[in-house]
Write a structure and sequence with these properties.
Chain lengths: 212, 212, 212, 212
DNA sequence: TATGAATGAGGATTCATTCAT
DNA sequence: GATGAATGAATCCTCATTCAT
């Protein structure tokens, strides 16, 4: 039973309060430890009120995911890369991703956790990863056809692998708090990526080219 | 409290039966769903017997991890790489890793899950990753000093990132069942790795070989 | 954690029903034998309801103690002793005490039992006894200064000892069912008390009465 | 099933070890908390061995009681009171009792506890108290007939009450650790006792009698 | 006799969810 | 819509006791 979109203004407010409270509680307690009554307590409503809007913990979690996705999929454009400088594009994408990750680290950890716990969320995430990889695989394919990327790598696998590299490293740094210089992170990830595909790296770290 | 080593042969048998049963149950039900009584039922012993050997679910899981680690850390030597051919070494390591992963896919998924659920296991895994990365970082440093690897990457970050790439891709393939040609997997991962460090073919960073 | 005062009338009723049921069950089964589910069954509520109001058996027992204390500390005034006739005062106090004891014999036995089982209740009882003895010790001291009580007894020890005498004898009679004529009990206890302090009849320590 | 008296020398040793261990464990943990396996562990035998000698915790406790009673009922004679000086007799008895109590305080607390828990022990103790009181009642009766004790007290009640006074005060002092000067204790208890019966107190605390 | 592994009954407790007010 | 008391299913875990070795 999906909740009917709240009809009244009061209902809308209550629903929003529950979502906000749920995010607080989930980030504080983790998905498993969080109890419905923690959420209602945090929201300042009676426990029964929860069920006016959601069927269970998973459903309110989905609502949070949806809200955040809205944010993370349409980030305010912060960098614009001109032309066809792939390396710069990758660098920009990585910087943007790592910034967003850092800002939402607790939530990202939560996504990881829930994906491990709830098969529905696992599938959701798998599909997102797949879609993303397919887009990137197309890019890689084109670059290979244009002779600008190593033709020896399988585009889809490479797309998955490089996404995994960035995503998992971000996870390790922020969530598992591996001690790593965060300054160097974006640069090195980008360089690894560019190298991995044998893109012309000239523009990322301009070689000490030309004569002095 | 760690379980005292069983003193009799019978006890040893029962303990082993419990561990085997636990593995079956965990793989079938997942860590969260598994109940202690599922394990004892599977092992064919009374429920109380469990507590003769383990304090709780987490502890028997740790025993499983330990047993598997024994297996995965001392794999039968399958490939031997001669000399200082780093690319071949990496290729061999990747092949070996992916093979082991494939053989223990369900268990590896379980490890991921439990690491998400139990902070102690999370920490355990973090430390293992850290140790592994540090070893690889040393290798990368050496190669950089020898002019055989891209000096532009941070060794420790690269080590983490490349491990993450391989580990997470293996996870995606086997556990999340991304549809990817498993044949091409090892080759592409190795190539990405080698490229990422600019190790290959002597052309990028020509070994300080022959005369100038 | 102390239970929050029930907020609704219904809650108040349920809580009271649980306390009443607990008293019945405790008196019937004893503290150790009583199970939480006996109490809820007696109260006619679901087992989980217990935990809405109490953390455990000990806490509901404390609530009973409190309720009874309310009763025993503010007894309806039955006897009023005029002036400074200490012997009459003691007699009245003893009669009142023994009457209350008889009326709550089962519960008093329960208090003894729980004090033996739960350190918190033991301490509670110890403190009550100490406070009571200190009050009586002051009285005895005064009487000694006035030459109306044997100066050879230590006031505090005597206060403890005489309380113990009355309290323990009441216990023996009612709880352990020693076969003793209950009529004579109050008289003899009072006489022992008065004698013990040499208060009586003015003959032992003649009040500083008439002219020398 | 009562244990057959152990037949072999080894058996006798094991049984004694169990009793000694039980006393240690009971004093350390209390009767309720003590587990059979604690006792066997303390005795250094296997848990099953317990049942070769005892049916359960209560039975080994009974064995301890028996052993101690042996000690406390036939104390080495430390004071001998000549003639018919009742007050001196009482003083000696009290001193002896308090000394024994102090020496076995933990065990006495245990007896109290178990009497509250196990009806059989409660009855046992009741009977002992009754027998003791009856003996004392006879003494009091005789003294009354001889005009040496207050005829206004009921002999049996007084016997119970005065025993209760001494016993319970000892309990309070040693077990509940009321803060009381232990030096004054025996003197005051004896004086209260003597006073209570209006015995001639001359010999206990010699009155500053006759002219100098 | 001694061992110690195995047994399994038994009760506490949590918390998602319902529903009368 | 909101409330919050009531529900009760579902597992965990202990430990006295047995019995094969």
């Amino acid at each position: 039973m999906v909740e009917p979109p709240a009809r009244t203004r009061r209902g809308e407010r209550t629903r929003a309060a529950l979502i906000a409270a749920a995010r607080v509680v989930f980030e504080r307690e983790g998905f498993l430890e969080a109890r419905v009554c923690d959420i209602t307590a945090e929201a300042g409503v009676a426990s029964g009120t929860f069920y006016t809007y959601f069927d269970d913990k998973a459903q309110i979690f989905a609502a949070i995911v949806e809200a955040v996705q809205e944010d993370m999929l349409h980030p305010p454009v912060r960098e614009r890369v001109e032309g066809d400088d792939v390396a710069a594009m990758i660098a920009a994408a990585n910087r943007e991703y790592l910034r967003a990750y850092a800002e939402n680290a607790r939530l990202m950890a939560l996504f990881e956790q829930v994906a491990q716990i709830d098969p529905e969320f696992r599938e959701l995430r798998r599909r997102r990863g797949q879609a993303f990889a397919e887009r990137n695989a197309k890019l890689i394919s084109r670059l290979q056809r244009e002779g600008r990327a190593d033709p020896g790598v399988d585009p889809l696998i490479a797309a998955h692998a490089l996404s995994a590299m960035v995503g998992r490293t971000a996870y390790a740094i922020h969530v598992m708090q591996q001690e790593i210089d965060r300054e160097a992170l974006a640069d090195t990830l980008t360089r690894l990526w560019v190298n991995a595909l044998r893109l012309d790296s000239g523009s990322v770290n301009p070689a000490p080219a030309g004569p002095a």
